[in-house]
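Office hours follow-up: a student asked to see two folded examples consecutively, so here they are.
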Amino acid sequence: MRTMLVGARALLVELDDRTAVDDLYAEIERRRVAGTLPRCEEVVPGARTVLLDGLTDPVALARDLTSWHIPRTEAPATALVEVPTVYDGADLAEVARYWEMTTREVIATHTGSRHRVAFCGFAPGFAYLTGLPPGRTVRRRPAPRSAVPTGAVGLADQYTGIYPRSSPGGWQLIGRTDLSLWDTGRVPAALLTPGTEVRFVEVPA
């Protein structure tokens, strides 16, 4: 674990891997609920980092972190979000070839996996979901598309992502959903936040 001050009120914690991020995030949430976490306005997990922002004394927290007991555990999940998905993505056949299975088996693998939001980034409402079986990674497209449609469901590395709005992107597209991922009239605006459990449900076109 390595800590770095970010400005006057934030602390960035660098960790060894995704599991360590989940463990620290879970411990932070436990302490927040118990009322033992120092004042903190926002906690933002990343691939290998956790940012704590709005701290009164980030130096003191950096010092205290060295004495925290952080058990191995999953980050607390929010309510399950089901994502109705039409599996007709332009790259579905390519993913099937890469995984050496049929497109129906790709769909069964994706819908049968337990997905969870690891962290958010790239664009407002874009969540990086873990949960694909070991070995089911997918390389990004060699040339990104100039425009990926809103609601496109894609795979990249070990993650699943859903594009909240049309934007350039290099993920392998396997399907699409009509769910609204980002709505400023909703609290929170993002439908998928860190820790959220997600299940993809196949629906007809």
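And the second, which I mentioned at the end of office hours:
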Amino acid sequence: MSAATAPVQKDLYSPLELFATDRLLDADERDIAATVRKFVDTKLRPNVGDWFESATLPKELGREFGALGLLGMHLQGYGCAGTNAVSYGLACMELEAGDSGFRSFVSVQGSLSMFSIYRYGSEEQKNEWLPRLATGEAIGCFGLTEPDFGSNPAGMRTRARRDGRDWVLDGTKMWITNGNLADVATVWARTGDGDGDISGFLVPTDTRVSPPTSSTRSCRCAPR
């Protein structure tokens, strides 16, 4: 055994652990997986049937996900946990085992909403939104998908035009995970006719927008 290999414990083996991948994880990674698994079993599973039927997820769960450090957990600074990619993947796997909607909520918040701000936002935007999104005080969504072209940016019809110092967005998005809970939306729109003329806009949801009008029979615990 090399010095970098975590010791294997007998209780890590079970009929469900067919490939014994737990032996490849370090202690912190196993602890994160176990913590999320316990949260799923005690807090989420008992309620998933009701939330599925009503196509809702209580917004206050965002703060509980935040308290566990799950929101934007792979990002550094701004109140984020700064874990590695393996830990993030394990957390998402455990959430997915409870319901795909739970994993969708967390991964859309962290990988789409928060990461787009983290990677492309101004320092002012990062400081305004990332700490609140990391704690679950605020919920974010990612407005890419459209009725006519799905998630294909090449077919995007939403347009953005200048109006003095402001931008005016005109278009339709649908199937936006977290959309009817979100406090801020990263909305993608065309600013011109060239291939690269697409920009993302941070839109607080108290801005005048139309409410969601459709539902699905999948991921119903990830409101859209």
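Two things to take away from it. The first helix runs from residue 27 to 44. Helices lie at 27-44, 48-54, 61-67, 85-98, 100-120, 123-135.
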